[in-house]
Amino acid sequence: MLSYLASIGVTIGVYALLALGLNVAWGLTGMINLGLAGFFALGAYASAIATTAGGMPIVGGVVLGFVFAGAGGLLLAAITLRLRGDYLAIITLGFSESVRLFASNETWLTRGADGISNIPGPWRSELTPFEFNVLFLGITTVVLVVVTLLLRNLANGPYGRALRAVRDDDIVAGVAGKPVARLRLQAFTLSAGLLGLAGALYGHYNSYIAPDVFRPLITIYIFLALTAGGPGNMLGALVGAVLVVFVIEGSRFLHDIVPGLSGVQVAATREMAIGILLILAMRLRPRGLVPERPLRAREVGLTAPRPEN
Question: Domain total for the chain?
Answer without folding.
Answer: 1
